[in-house]
């Protein structure tokens, strides 16, 4: 039987712990279980319902949601008129207009407009698999690929 704790989270009183839907682990609180379950989806556990983009933290999703609200986009691209909520996003966008790719792969020399794209690309050269399936141990270079893979275990 579950009861509400003073801070509002459910805690189980018997051995029927809060069980993970994706692995055999069980937890004493719903909060701990829910936090653990996010690990099965790689680093991107929070998904935008408008465009399906995923984020590692709820605060990142909240910040992203502002992109869907035109009134908060204060930084204007002088080339195409697209608006951005943050100046650093405009800077990256302007690199695309100018064809600038300042971040170069140390293995093949390919250029990228963002460091995050370079990091993901270099994993192809190194074979690094930063996103591991906790059920079967298979590794993936991208969180999205792990998310798709998890569907083979959950039947979704």
UniProtKB/TrEMBL annotation:
Top-rank lineage group of the source organism: Eukaryota
SUPFAM superfamilies from the UniProt entry: beta-beta-alpha zinc fingers
Pfam families hit by this protein: zf-C2H2
Residues in C2H2-type domain copies: 18-45, 46-73, 75-102, 103-130, 131-156
Sorted UniProt keywords: DNA-binding, Metal-binding, Nucleus, Repeat, Zinc, Zinc-finger
Locations listed in the record: Nucleus
Example GO molecular function: DNA-binding transcription factor activity, RNA polymerase II-specific
Xref: SMART domains: ZnF_C2H2 (SM00355)
InterPro entries: Snail/Krueppel_Znf, Znf_C2H2_sf, Znf_C2H2_type
GO cellular component, one term: nucleus
Keyword Zinc-finger attached: yes
Protein family membership: Belongs to the snail C2H2-type zinc-finger protein family.
Protein name (Swiss-Prot/TrEMBL): LIM domain containing protein
Origin species: Oryctes borbonicus
